[in-house]
Amino acid sequence: FQKIRVLKAYLGEDFDENSMRNNMTLIYELMDETMDFGYPQNCAVDVLQMYINLANVKPQDEPEPEQLTKQITGAIDWRREGIRHKKNEVYIDVLESVNLMISTSGAILRNEVTGRVQMNTKLTGMPECKFGLNDKLVIEKESAGGKKKPGVEIDDCVFHRCVRLGKFDADRTITFIPPDGEFELMRYRVNDNVNLPFRLIPAVQEEGQTKCSINLKVIANFSEKLFATHVVIKIPVPKNTSKAKIKNSFGRAKYEPEQNAIVWRIKKFPGKATCMLSSDMELVRTVRPKAWERPAINVDFQVPMFTASGVHVRFLRVYDKSGYHTNRWVRYITKAGGYQVKI
């Protein structure tokens, strides 16, 4: 992924085979600088652009030879010195995907959340940041002997290389000198105490070979102050369905033969709301009757300012020699990964 990002920076967002063939010398030079005996070495685009330039591009500030050597060989190659911003701001996005599989009996077969913390930093100088989530281990340590606060058990943490892993292993604190601009700080997974955004209760009744009815109840489990957007529920129907009479409380539902499903679209789903859909299908008789396999109902959605795992940002502290004020902005978004309910 880092290689693709470097190539996009030099060849453009939509580079193709021809542009690579026409810039083989540049690509050879980039490969030579970014790899050392097959291992990734320096993949920071802004540092590479200081000493690998196209003929028609000049760096904004010509670096001193000493500074250039430090950037190439130093420990902090993802951020160059002398960065200045009029406003010092940090944007934090906590993006989560919910993966759910429920059997026909209602038993949970799979239930997990995969998340990532995306940051966009616009900070002057070489600041050091300290980032805190409501990690269960950290909170239990801080509240030892006092009142216990609820925390989230965060597993499988994968960090950007700017994070000091020694500090995290020692006391679970996330300390780093951030790159300038957008980057992914960390990825994580949560398996326990997942707050499912939607609960689906399906009921299917097959009447011989010519009729079938489906009833579906959908309940939003998140706060009434929030809304889910772009909700799409795909309800499978038998392949030999000829007609479908559909009734739904809100949104738009339509039988789409090419997908062998009733597709129910809801632009805005209020929290704590309940909606119903019922459908009566007429089936075409087949020469060789075959039992319907009953695929799972698939749900797609997006819930802003909600985390299914319960993870939230406790603090972000920025330390710099000049002691400037930093504005911090946090946003949460939960999306459907594989959200399926068998019928």
Describe the structure.
- There is one protein chain.
- This protein is an alpha+beta fold.
- Helices cover 17% and strands 44% of the residues.
- It contains 7 helices and 18 strands.
- The strands form 4 sheets. Strands 6-8-4-3-18-16-11-14-13 form a 9-stranded mixed sheet, with no helix packed on it. A 4-stranded antiparallel sheet has the order 9-10-15-12, with no helix packed on it. A 3-stranded antiparallel sheet has the order 7-5-17.
- The longest helix has 11 residues, at 24-34.
- The chain is globular and about 75 Å long.
- Residues 55-60 have low confidence and may be disordered.
Structural class: alpha+beta
Shape category: globular
Give the termini separation.
39 Å
Query: Could you tell me the strand content as a percent range?
Result: 35-45%
| Order of SSEs | HHHEEHHEEEHEHEEEEEEEEEEEE
Gyration radius, to the nearest Å? 26 Å
What's the average pLDDT?
87
Helical percentage: 10-25%
Total strands: the figure is 18
Tally of individual helices:
7
Spatial order of strands in the largest sheet: 6-8-4-3-18-16-11-14-13
- Which oligomeric form is depicted? single chain
Low-confidence stretches: 55-60
Q: Largest sheet, if any?
A: 9 strands, mixed
Brief summary:
Helices cover 17% and strands 44% of the residues. It has helices at 2-11, 17-22, 24-34, 45-51, 65-73, 136-142, 165-171, and strands spanning 35-36, 39-40, 89-102, 108-122, 128-133, 155-159, 174-176, 181-190, 198-207, 211-220, 227-236, 241-248, 252-256, 261-270, 274-283, 297-304, 313-319, 327-341. The two termini are 39 Å apart.
